[in-house]
Design a protein that fits this description.
15% of the residues lie in helices and 49% in strands. It is of the alpha+beta class. Strands 1, 2, 3, 4, 5, 6, 7, 8, 9 and 10 form a 10-stranded mixed beta sheet that branches. The structure holds copper (II) ion. The site of copper (II) ion has 4 residues, from β8.
């Protein structure tokens, strides 16, 4: 048996027998900057099965990509991800400067204070549609860092 096949067996044994139970909250988009806008959400998987976020779409932009900002040698770069793991019993928090959703070509309605629907698609669970509110990028970043640092 090849190492890849063996690895597949090991991964498949983990969390695929249970059922994921996803909740999406806190959807917020930043005011567009240079033709794109960062979108953040929190996804809780309270089930006992793993899931994956595989796509996100909205009528309010040309498309939405899954991005992660990584810092290497002091330089921040955005990496395009194919999917985001949502392990059983864990919370995945998107935030500016970390894991985030990138709206490409947001339309004219994406302005401060506006709300628009976003649909998240998963490998196993049914799609979930939430309403995102448009906020100032700095407020958005500040809130998420406060939450990460426990308010300090
Ligand atoms: Cu990005």
């Amino acid at each position: 048996m090849s190492i890849l096949a063996l690895l597949g067996l090991v991964l498949a044994a983990c969390g695929t027998s249970g059922v994921p139970a996803l909740t999406v909250s806190g959807a917020q988009a930043a005011v567009p900057l240079a033709g794109s806008s960062q979108l953040v959400v929190q996804i809780d998987n309270d089930g006992d099965g793993d899931d994956r976020l595989v796509a996100v779409d909205t009528d309010a932009a040309i498309g939405i990509e899954l991005h992660e900002t990584r810092i290497e040698d002091g330089i921040a770069t955005m990496v395009d991800l194919d999917e985001v793991a949502l392990p059983a019993g864990e919370t995945v928090r998107f935030r500016p400067g970390g894991l985030h959703l990138m709206m490409i070509g947001p339309d004219d309605e994406v302005v401060l204070g506006a709300r628009f629907p976003v649909t998240l698609r998963f490998e196993r669970s049914d799609p979930i549609t939430v309403t995102a509110e448009v906020r100032d990028l700095l407020d958005l970043a500040e809130d998420s860092f406060d939450a990460d640092a426990g308010g300090s």
